[in-house]
Description:
Elements: H1 14-33, E1 36-39, E2 42-44, H2 46-62, H3 69-77, E3 88-90, E4 97-98, H4 99-113
Antiparallel strand pairs: 1-2, 1-3, 3-4
Helix pairs in contact: 1-2, 1-4, 3-4
Amino acid sequence: MLASAAPALAQPSAGQALAEAEIEALIAGLGDSGCRFQRNGRWHGAAEAQAHLRRKYEWGRRGGEAGSAEAFIDRAASRSSVTGRAYRVSCTGQPEADAAEWFRARLADLRASTPAR
């Protein structure tokens, strides 16, 4: 009998699965928000920003940078990895904010609304 040459896919730990769910909720939340997202001085719609952050997250995961939701915010959702310029978020009826601040507030809301784990 031949053994499979492909390595078994490792299952994420419970903590990593929770982090991935939180990160996906943050990315989806931006896409559903209707807010504008500024990167490198140009404003983008929420759907375009969502796609950009999802690509950055997947790129980081492939590079072995999977981590907590806070790490995602710090590494991918706060600033351009090319220019280092901070991202901004502008939502109707709210003051413009740094993306890091905006995502941290959404993460706090998400965790507050999630039953105890």
